[in-house]
């Protein structure tokens, strides 16, 4: 029988080549690489150590029943299959086991046995399973595979338990277990010196810094323990024997005390100690010439930022990212007179105590800023100094537009002055253009002289006149339509010229794009009077008629409430439809609280304020506006935050008018965002104001917990926030839901518990059991109490034993009145209709009817 024997890969990715020098020495002692397959005649027998095969069978037994879709996640794994690698794939044979890597005895590749069979000794050297949905624990039998050099179990959040100490029995060079569900303390492996990579980030390990466990790992080049629950101080000389470290990540734990000494790690390239509680002064990193990225943000470090002495061009020529934001650093910016940054490209010094005058003109003269005119590259692309105490900025007023380096100074006294010059617009709002130059350019007239015949001139003049006349008639027709519609409903929105909005957004430049939804993109714009607006450009593919668009403008113009984004006006130009809103300059809840570079630790009073603001805005839409409106897309990214964290509900792209006489309507198409959809709407299209109530409840849980409602990085029982909240409620552990980074006073804990209870009332499966937003506002304002009694299993389904809402005080739950709100239109003027079929009191509504975009 003709057999083609090939080498089995070792499981070491090419990108890891610089990290596996000792690993390669170990492998070369077992193998000789062959550039092409070797053809042998006869049958090849692969002999494995019995302990290795038994260990794999134990792993298969531990995972096969709990891991979903094992036929793909653990493809090839089988109790009937004897060997994991180098199988003949025929009708009667199984394929190799997914993720298992083997090597074969060298004699099988250098012996030319053309007449008979041969026996080959095979060793299991690697196990690599990424995003395989493994569920269960890592059995201690893994240590019985003594020849194991690579163990990569990555992105399996349901793989948990404690780490087995038997790993010490292996010859691991790479131990990568990041983004799983392991917990407890890291075991003491004893004398475990071989690892080159130890990545345990994104788990739930706790305890103090594991120095005894890693002390002997003198060859370690990657140490990543970020996103765990470690605490306490780190010994000053914890890394004195780890001189070969290339990457050190201890971020997102609660380490405290002073930073350890790192100067002995000469080849360190990536240093991330962010989001801990380190104190003391900045470390001296001048001797670490290989640094490429340094992130010490979100600690309590103090000292003076003297970049000219810390990162000198001649000493440090590779550092590109420096993030020291959210500390207590001070400096006099005049010391940056002779700043030398080497190849540093991004500097983040936000939320510190930096003061004085920033000399941008000096930075420009030193060649540290990118400019359009010179097309310079390799210099600073970002200089962020937000929320400091910078009082003045010196810059060249004529060259603001040429600076392409993003300079951010929001939150400094310099930005408190009125937006009256090019500098404050550029450095405080990142809208960089020379207003004076634009005015001059508008005055220029270009005259083109063309020698043509008199007849050609006449033909050209007649054609142009006809075109202008046609355009003028069309524009006049549009103006009459707009005027008639607005007079009919007695509203007066501003009609913006298209050219004005085009200039305000720099021709809808991508740098000014704030976001994009299902119906259009939103851009930041600055009007000639200095007012900042948000311009929503609806996609041209929409089939919406002018009359439908104007109906929406009329509707939105009449919605006036402090917790709703205010519509300032609109613009119509041929197929272009634009809506102009007030500009909200503090991002949204998703960016500030849940994710992104702008994530901030918000206090409990701020979070409660956000919830109350959203509740008041929804109560206005559901009960006080005429006609009533269902938003249908309440989610964290649609809740904007103004100064002082005042809340604004935005993006009415999926909103629907709701008939006053109907309790619910049926829709033929479901729209919204996964994780926020009420069950009756997602399953049956049944739409009522209780759909928004459900979304509000999910949003409140996100605000309390500081995480998204669906997050695959968590264990399966915590992946879905709403499900986890109900589970914690049944176990009387609701406070486990609270953001662990938020510190609470005793009285605040009661308020948090109460808000979670209100949120649980809002996310009940049955819409009629959810409170109205009127009741929610009353409960949040302390006018009513809510009690949620534990869920109990029944007929394989969960049901509420009881839900009780009761009023406190004499006033009970009357109408919640708010300031600063108004509405218009009586119900007889409602835009959009409903079907004649009544379907048990519910109207069947086509989504082609009026929607607020």
Describe this structure in words.
The chain is of the alpha/beta class and 853 residues long. It has four domains: 1-184, Ribonuclease Inhibitor (Leucine-rich repeat, LRR (right-handed beta-alpha superhelix), Alpha-Beta Horseshoe), CATH 3.80.10.10; 282-440, Leucine-rich repeat, LRR (right-handed beta-alpha superhelix) (Alpha-Beta Horseshoe), CATH 3.80.10; 470-582, Phosphorylase Kinase, domain 1 (2-Layer Sandwich), CATH 3.30.200; 589-813 and 831-852, Transferase(Phosphotransferase) domain 1 (Transferase(Phosphotransferase), domain 1). The protein is 24% helix and 22% strand. It is built from 20 helices and 45 strands. The strands form ten sheets. Strands 3, 4, 5, 7, 9, 11, 13, 15, 17, 19, 21, 23, 25 and 27 form a 14-stranded mixed beta sheet that branches. Strands 6-8-10-12-14-16-18-20-22 form a nine-stranded parallel beta sheet, with no helix packed on it. Strand 32 (567-573) and strand 33 (576-582) form a beta hairpin. The longest helix has 36 residues, at 454-489. The protein is globular, with a radius of gyration of 33 Å. The termini are far apart. The model is unreliable at 1-43, 88-92, 437-453 and 784-853 (pLDDT under 50).
């Amino acid at each position: 029988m003709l057999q083609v024997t090939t080498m089995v890969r070792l499981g070491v990715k090419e990108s890891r080549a610089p990290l596996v020098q000792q690993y390669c020495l170990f492998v070369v002692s077992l193998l000789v690489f062959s550039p092409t397959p070797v053809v042998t005649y006869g049958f090849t027998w692969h002999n494995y150590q019995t302990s290795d095969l038994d260990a794999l069978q134990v792993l298969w037994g531990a995972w096969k029943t709990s891991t979903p879709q094992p036929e793909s996640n653990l493809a090839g794994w089988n109790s009937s299959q004897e060997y994991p690698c180098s199988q003949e794939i025929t009708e009667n044979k199984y394929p190799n086991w997914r993720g298992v890597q083997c090597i074969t005895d060298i004699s099988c590749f250098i012996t030319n046995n053309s007449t008979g069979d041969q026996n080959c000794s095979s060793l299991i050297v690697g196990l690599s399973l990424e995003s395989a949905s493994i569920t269960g624990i890592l059995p201690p039998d893994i240590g019985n595979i003594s020849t194991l050099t690579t163990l990569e179990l990555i992105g399996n959040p349901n793989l948990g338990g404690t780490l087995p100490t038997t790993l010490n029995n292996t010859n691991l060079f790479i131990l990568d277990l990041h983004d799983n569900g392991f917990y407890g303390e890291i075991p003491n492996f004893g004398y475990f010196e071989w690892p080159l990579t130890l990545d345990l980030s994104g788990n739930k390990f706790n305890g103090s810094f594991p120095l005894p466990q890693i002390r002997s790992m003198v060859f370690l080049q990657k140490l990543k323990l970020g996103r765990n629950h470690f605490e306490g101080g780190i010994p000053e000389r914890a890394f004195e024997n780890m001189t070969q470290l290339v990457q050190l990540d201890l971020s997102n734990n609660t380490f405290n005390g002073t930073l350890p000494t790192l100067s002995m790690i000469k080849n360190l390239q990536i240093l991330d100690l962010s989001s801990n509680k380190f104190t003391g002064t900045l470390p001296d990193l001048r001797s670490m010439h290989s640094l490429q990225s340094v992130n010490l943000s979100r600690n309590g470090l103090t000292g003076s930022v003297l970049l000219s002495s810390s990162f000198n061009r001649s000493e440090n020529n590779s550092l590109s990212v420096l993030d020291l934001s959210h500390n207590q650093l001070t400096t006099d910016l005049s010391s940056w007179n002779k700043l030398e940054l080497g190849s540093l490209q991004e500097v983040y010094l936000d939320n510190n105590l930096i003061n004085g005058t920033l000399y941008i003109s000096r930075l420009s003269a030193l060649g540290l800023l990118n400019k359009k005119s010179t097309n310079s590259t390799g210099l600073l692309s970002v200089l962020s100094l937000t929320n400091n105490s910078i009082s003045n900025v010196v810059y060249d007023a004529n060259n603001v537009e040429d600076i392409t380096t993003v300079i951010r100074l929001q939150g400094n006294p310099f930005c408190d002055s009125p937006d009256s010059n090019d500098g404050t617009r550029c450095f405080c709002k990142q809208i960089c253009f020379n207003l004076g130059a634009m005015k001059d350019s508008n005055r220029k007239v270009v005259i083109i002289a063309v020698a043509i015949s008199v007849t050609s001139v006449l033909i050209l003049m007649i054609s142009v006149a006809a075109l202008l006349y046609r355009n003028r008639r069309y524009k006049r027709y549009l103006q009459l339509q707009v005027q008639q519609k607005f007079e009919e409903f007695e509203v007066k929105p501003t009609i913006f010229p298209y050219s004005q909005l085009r200039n305000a957004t720099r021709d809808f430049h991508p740098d000014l794009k704030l976001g994009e939804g299902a119906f259009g993109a939103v851009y930041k714009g600055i009007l000639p009077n200095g007012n900042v607006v948000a311009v929503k450009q609806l996609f041209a593919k929409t089939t919406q008629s002018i009359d439908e668009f104007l109906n929406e403008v009329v509707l939105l113009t009449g919605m006036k409430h402090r917790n709703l984004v205010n519509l300032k006006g609109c613009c119509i130009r041929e197929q272009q439809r634009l809506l102009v809103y007030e500009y909200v300059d503090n991002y949204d809840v998703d960016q500030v609280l849940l994710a992104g570079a702008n994530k901030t630790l918000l206090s409990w009073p701020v979070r409660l304020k956000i919830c109350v603001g959203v509740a008041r805005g929804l109560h206005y839409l559901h009960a006080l506006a005429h006609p009533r409106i269902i938003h249908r897309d309440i989610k964290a990214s649609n809740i904007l935050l103004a100064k002082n964290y005042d809340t604004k509900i935005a993006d009415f792209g999926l909103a629907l008018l709701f008939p006053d006489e109907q309790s619910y309507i049926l829709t033929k198409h479901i729209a919204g965002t996964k994780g926020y959809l009420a069950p009756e709407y997602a399953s049956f299209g049944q739409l009522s104001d209780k759909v928004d109530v459900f979304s509000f409840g999910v949003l409140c849980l996100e605000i309390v917990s500081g995480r998204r409602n669906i997050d695959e990085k968590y264990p399966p029982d915590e992946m879905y926030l709403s499900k986890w909240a109900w589970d914690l409620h049944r176990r009387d552990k609701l406070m486990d839901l609270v953001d662990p980074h938020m510190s609470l006073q005793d009285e605040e804990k009661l308020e948090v518990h109460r808000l979670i209870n209100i949120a649980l009332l809002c996310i009940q499966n049955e819409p009629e059991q959810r409170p109205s937003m009127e009741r929610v506002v009353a409960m949040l304002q302390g006018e009513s109490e809510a009690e949620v009694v534990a869920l109990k299993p029944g007929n394989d389904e969960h049901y509420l034993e009881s839900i009780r809402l009761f009023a406190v005080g004499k006033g009970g739950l009357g109408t919640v009145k708010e300031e600063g709100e108004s509405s218009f239109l009586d119900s007889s003027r409602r835009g959009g209709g409903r079907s004649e079929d009544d379907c048990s009191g519910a109207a069947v509504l086509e989504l082609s009817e009026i929607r607020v975009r």
